[in-house]
């Protein structure tokens, strides 16, 4: 639900902190690879979302195991107990994934 980061006018909410302000360090020794890292992450995530559905894992009765919404608050916080399965979106997406894999070998 990416729209949760937007306010009523469709602008980025001012109370949302930008993770980039911290994760790449700051000052004179901040990460010089941040732009490459951001672009790589963007293209990787876009490719995943374009070609695959990320769905909740199913239990033994075929019911989805939904996350409880608990967060692990460590150096980087992340959702806990997030069990998922991945489903290729289409035959065309499958061909795209295979050609991408073949190119990277
Ligand atoms: C998600 C990916 C990455 C993260 C989270 C990350 C994070 C960091 C952090 C926290 C630092 C230390 C900054 C400081 O001391 O204040 C750093 C330094 C550095 N990073 Fe990255 N980095 C990433 C990717 C990359 C990439 C792709 C490259 C190169 C292509 C790179 C090259 C460097 C170099 C050379 C330094 C040392 C800078 C210095 O000491 O002057 N990093 N990075």
From TrEMBL:
Which domain of life does the UniProt lineage start with? Eukaryota
Q: Which InterPro entries match?
A: Cyt_P450 (IPR001128), Cyt_P450_sf (IPR036396), Cytochrome_P450_fung (IPR050364)
Q: State a single Gene Ontology molecular function.
A: iron ion binding
Question: Cofactor(s) for this protein?
Answer: heme
Q: Which SUPFAM superfamilies match?
A: Cytochrome P450
Pfam families on file? p450
Q: Does the record bear Lipid metabolism in its keywords? A: no
A GO cellular component term found in this entry reads: membrane
Compartments reported by the entry: Membrane
Question: Protein name, please?
Answer: Cytochrome P450
